[in-house]
Amino acid sequence: MTPNNCQDGQYERICRPEFLSLHSKLDRLDDAIRGNGKPGINLRLELLEAAAASRRRLTWIVIGAFVSAGASAVMQLVQFIGRQ
Prior knowledge:
Blueprint (H helix, E strand, L loop, with lengths): L9 H25 L6 H43 L1
């Protein structure tokens, strides 16, 4: 069924191949995003965000440990100097 405003087989010659090409590209994009049986962009993005959150937590834990160790060392140094 061709649209009423197409003349001289314009739909069959020009429009239809373009629409088929667009549908093919959309299908490939959908497969890439959803994965179609393998990890898609959505899953990969979720994994990357989870890994980034874990790295942030680990970074703050390490910073906290260094600050705590530094404060402890300063306190021991102050106590040592105070005994002298």
